[in-house]
Amino acid sequence: MTLHSLPLFARLAGRPVILVGEGHIADAKRRLIERAGGLVVSEENAEARFAFVVGDEAAAIRLRARGLLVNMADRPDLCDFTMPAIVERGDVVVAVGTGGASAGLSAQLRQRLETWLPAGLGALAAGLKGAREAIHARWPDFDDRRRAIGAALAEGGPLDPFAAGDVDAWLASTDTAPQPRLVSVTLASADPDDLTLRAARALGLADRIYHSPEVPAAILDRARGDAERIVGTPPADPLPGLSVALEIAE
């Protein structure tokens, strides 16, 4: 499955951002730029790398010709980037985008996420940030560190984002290293929408995935981006972390 866009988070604090246009839509873009710490400037600015354009197609074309990344309201064909609907919990920012297909759909999904994501996510992120040096000291190896954090943040874990977790208490505990584990998943079909909740969770947490050549890319795309994809069967003794063995039901 091909991504229509690569989601990125751009740091705009202290940087000039061009804004062209007037009216309530332009005012909303201005507030967004300023909220991100950007400096709103005119089209003539030579240092800006991003531009928001409202209602001026010629300006969008000129700015793109200069090499700027442009967002033009209601014209996805003239956009180098689109603006997602945003849910914010402190340092945790969740963005929902449709590549310009439907801002209304993004907005509806954002509203549902607002009711679903707990207010304490920001505090949890701040706690993990503050404990970064202690976490690195306890798990110097990157893979060990990633697995320990993943296990702590998993559902029911000591830092479950949907429960009240304490980072200091987690670091002080002695039982923080996840055990090697193998999960076998039999797929009902090649359609990723048919994944069970258990299968989807396993794919999202897996360190490596063993699968037959018949398992489609659409299923494998539901896994973590850095999870190993291995065609074949898993070894008798599971490797460190979580291994998932996928097969399609006959």
Span between N and C termini?
Answer: 24 Å
Question: What is the CATH topology classification name of the largest domain?
Answer: Rossmann fold
Strand content: 15-25%
CATH architecture of the largest domain: 3-Layer(aba) Sandwich
User: The biggest beta sheet, please?
Assistant: 4 strands, parallel
CATH level-4 homologous superfamily of the largest domain? NAD(P)-binding Rossmann-like Domain
Rg, Cα atoms, Å? 22 Å
Strand and helix map with partners:
Blueprint (H helix, E strand, L loop, with lengths): L15 E5 L3 H12 L3 E3 L8 E4 L3 H9 L3 E4 L12 E5 L2 E5 L6 H14 L4 H10 L1 H7 L3 H12 L13 H6 L8 E7 L9 H9 L2 E4 L5 H4 L7 E4 L10 E7 L2
Parallel strand pairs: 1-2, 1-3, 3-4, 7-10, 8-9, 8-10
Antiparallel strand pairs: 5-6
Describe this structure in words.
With 250 residues, this protein is α/β, with parallel strands linked by helices. The chain has three domains: 16-116, Rossmann fold; 121-172, no CATH class; 181-248, no CATH class. 33% of the residues lie in helices and 19% in strands. The chain has nine helices and ten strands. The protein has helices spanning 24-35, 57-65, 103-116, 121-130, 132-138, 142-153, 167-172, 197-205, 217-220; strands spanning 16-20, 39-41, 50-53, 69-72, 85-89, 92-96, 181-187, 208-211, 228-231, 242-248. A four-stranded parallel sheet has the order 2-1-3-4, sandwiched between helices. A four-stranded parallel sheet has the order 7-10-8-9, with helices on one face. Strands 5-6 form a two-stranded antiparallel ribbon.
